[in-house]
Amino acid sequence: MNRSAAKIAGVIALLAYFFLSAAEAAGPGWMPGFPLRAGTNVLLMWNPVPGAASYKVYRTETPGKDYSLVGDVPANNFMDPNVPNTKSFYYIVRAVIAGKEGDPSVEIAMKGVEPTPKTSISGHLVTADGKVSLRWEIVPVAAFYNLYRAESREGPYALLTSIQDTKYTDAKVSEGKVYFYRVTAVNSASLESEKSEPYMVKFVKTEKVVEKEIPAVPLVVKQKGVFFGEKQYEMSAPTDVEVGPDGRVFVADELGTVLVFDADGVYQTRFGAPPDPKAALNWGVPWGLGIDPKTYTIYVTYLRTTKIRAFDKDGKLLKEFEMPRPKNPPEPRFGVTPYDVAVGIDGKLWVTEGGFFQLVALDQEGNELARVGRPRGSKDADPEVDFGSPSFLTVDRLSGNVHVTDVGGQRVQVFDKNGKRLSKYGSGGESPGRFSIPVGICYADGLVYVVDGASSRIQAFTPAGEYKHQFTDESKKTFFRGSYSCIAIRGKKVYVTEKASSQVKIFEMP
């Protein structure tokens, strides 16, 4: 080899050295759209590195450290099998050139799928033809629901149906038997939620009683507006609504705050969120609202916790306290669930408790004053007087009587200001004066207004339970079409939460 050829060969060798060194130092770049989950498998693809003989794939559950080798592959792709979809995992890949591993790629995350929220059975109705019609709370991310049934509380529970609707009629029931139902929500990734608490139905087919039909008295109202939140569709399934002494409207929302609007639905502010990220995990979701008109203290029940919190009119947290448990409950496995709250004319806090199906009176500091109804699971519970499932409540501001919607009993129960049971009104059905899953309730100008969730209507009653009228629109037809839950009235303005479309509608009475 002459000197010139040797020089050229040396240059080529030097370039090859620098090329291989550069290749070793380069971290592969991820292809767009990856990682990609396919069931329990995670597919990874990256851009090929020139000169790479193979690639090594590393994985960790802790970002930035503690990597473990999960793959050594010749091509620029890898399928990681059996990866739990409830956890987040993080990957890097290194190219192997001339037997040496190069620099790592940037770390890329395969986020775990959020668990599907739990739902609950909201009530049932025994139909005239001898069937049990059940309904449950909507879960926005649910693709469908699984309904299970057993003949004892402990089970075993057999799958009864998989259905996209939030209601189901069970025709395979026998008179005199007791059934227990549980429901789950399943999202589009086939992740099933936890089962709801067991819901008991004692099936007793009653003889059809011929009653005098009450004529439907229409009250024509006009829709005056609709509001969604700070921005359009900002709400997420608003639950309760209340009007303050100054006319401002307060809405509890599943996004985790209480939203404040003026009387026309113009957004003002929000409050009630956790004070910092560390508190968010156990903070809960605002659900029921009660306002003390004398002090303008706003009481809020928080679902998924046992907390009741009090705020001033500007949304400043004043105090919080735990909802007390019943003494020696027959079913200690049940959790305490403060559902709705109202302030009595004497300052008592009346709270519907959704774990043990009771009405509880508290003082302003959360100390128990009275407890109404035998707790759920009691062997001596009387379905004629004990709660089937208490929901929302309101206070007659003249007498101090407390009106409670009893979803399981398809009625409204009435108690005096000391908790003594006075009366009840309504029964199962869709004719005037009856209910199919009564939910929201409010007192205004001498009348009690009840939202009937299943038949999507609002009926008005006297405090004694006498049917007065139901709302219709200007075309004289029932105007409610969404999933309505709660109601508040001030003057001629009627505010109704609509959970299905995440909005609040304003109507005006004549």
Assign the structural class, choosing from mainly alpha, mainly beta, alpha/beta, alpha+beta, or little secondary structure. Answer: mainly beta
Q: How can the largest sheet be summarized? A: 5 strands, antiparallel
Q: Tell me roughly what share of residues is in helical segments.
A: under 10%
For CATH, the homologous superfamily of the largest domain is named as TolB, C-terminal domain
Relative strand content:
35-45%
How far apart the termini lie comes to 108 Å
Oligomeric state of the chains? single chain
Would you identify the regions where 5 or more consecutive residues have pLDDT less than 50?
Answer: 11-25
Q: What's the tally of helices?
A: 2
Radius of gyration: 30 Å
Question: What CATH architecture of the largest domain do you see?
Answer: 6 Propeller
> How would the global form be characterised?
elongated
Determine and state the CATH class of the largest domain: Mainly Beta
| Number of structural domains | 3
Q: Give a count of the beta strands, DSSP E runs of length 2 or more.
A: 40
Mean pLDDT comes to 87
CATH topology of the largest domain: Neuraminidase
Q: Which key features would you list for this structure?
A:
single chain, 510 residues, mainly beta, Immunoglobulin-like, Neuraminidase, five-stranded antiparallel beta sheet, five-stranded mixed beta sheet, 2 helices, 40 strands, 5% helix
